[in-house]
């Protein structure tokens, strides 16, 4: 059974850095496009960054130039490097990935459990 496992969240001062990781557990056939989302209390879920299977990336304007998404296809992992963190970056961060679990299978979306990022003044 496929699960996405997130790690790396925590408490950091403004201006600091964190690196989040999203790993697919279980046997999968392919690990396609991966998104990072975040949701702060009282706000809608926001798409932060996307990376496709060929490595193309896209970022929300609010994080452009500060966050970097990358992937390691051999390990089926995706990372989000977050630099120059601001108070408004405080949120629960989720990864979501398109996964095919067997040859000839259809792609399904899987979500991680979320990891809390808190930026303090």
Explain the overall architecture:
β7 (67-72) and β8 (77-82) form a beta hairpin. The protein has strands at residues 3-7, 10-13, 18-25, 30-39, 46-51, 57-59, 67-72, 77-82, 91-100, 108-111, 115-120. 0% of the residues lie in helices and 56% in strands. The mean pLDDT is 93. The protein is elongated, with a radius of gyration of 14 Å. It starts with a strand and ends with a strand.
Number of strands: 11
Unreliable sequence segments = none
- The gross shape turns out to be elongated
Distance between the termini: 41 Å
> What is the helix content?
under 10%
Q: Key terms for this structure?
A:
0% helix, 56% strand, seven-stranded mixed β-sheet, mainly beta, 121 residues, four-stranded antiparallel β-sheet
Task: Summarize the topology.
Elements (H helix, E strand, L loop, with lengths): L2 E5 L2 E4 L4 E8 L4 E10 L6 E6 L5 E3 L7 E6 L4 E6 L8 E10 L7 E4 L3 E6 L1
Parallel strand pairs: 2-11
Antiparallel strand pairs: 1-3, 3-8, 4-5, 4-9, 5-6, 7-8, 9-10, 9-11
Quick rundown:
With 121 residues, this protein is an all-beta fold.
